[in-house]
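Worked example 2:
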Amino acid sequence: NDPGFAQALARLAEVYVDDAFGAAHRAHASTHGMVKHFAARAAGFLLAREVEVLSALLATPARPFVAILGGAKVSDKIDVIENLLDRVQVFCIGGAMAYTFLKAQGKPIGRSRVEDDRLELARETLDRADAKGVAIRLPVDHLAADKPEAGARTQIVGADTFPPDLLGVDIGPATAKAYAAEIAAAQTTLWNGPMGIFEIDAFAQGTMAIAEALATSKGTTVVGGGDSVAALARAGKLGAVTHVSTGGGASLEFLEGKTLPGLAALEG
């Protein structure tokens, strides 16, 4: 976001239109610094649509509002959970981040990936959700493997009987069915993050089940960028949801309630 470079870019045009929602959370010369040099500036149609859809999730979402959150780290999604606690009725947690929550509850997780430095934060989040009457659903069963690779030995294990020598690589079938039921009952559903290591076919069933459930939902369905979109595309369901966000990090920060530099520059 060098000022000189931003000014040099601005000399190239008379009108500025930003349609790059996926970069709106970056304070770069092309998305932020150059914008102040234009009297005529606007959001493109894609950017405007992203803001419209995501703003509705934060303002007046139809209830029940269900959020399906996955991915590797609690630390990546905790601010989203916090900002949505007053809006969402049910959170369904999958991916490696679920194991931090489960360990915080004292559940066995074997060799599953966990953020030990976030255990207290996970406990506090569970307590806050409970105090607000918000349900945080965690996996009741898992697909466990001896290694996170194709060709691994796998088995379905219960939440209370996780073998110490295995690690979680996907939600189990009972969990997938329970999460699909939550989606079916929802009027609004947000999905961000896979339920397991979906890039490996043997570990993809939970994530594909979420994609299928979203595709058959009668409510508003919004899918965050990144891996969730890749999973939806792999399931062949990109056209079956209400909105597919083009920005992974940008959509997360928007839902966290943060000001995106790219949007602030247009408004300023």
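The chain has a mean pLDDT of 96. The first strand starts at residue 15 and ends at 18.
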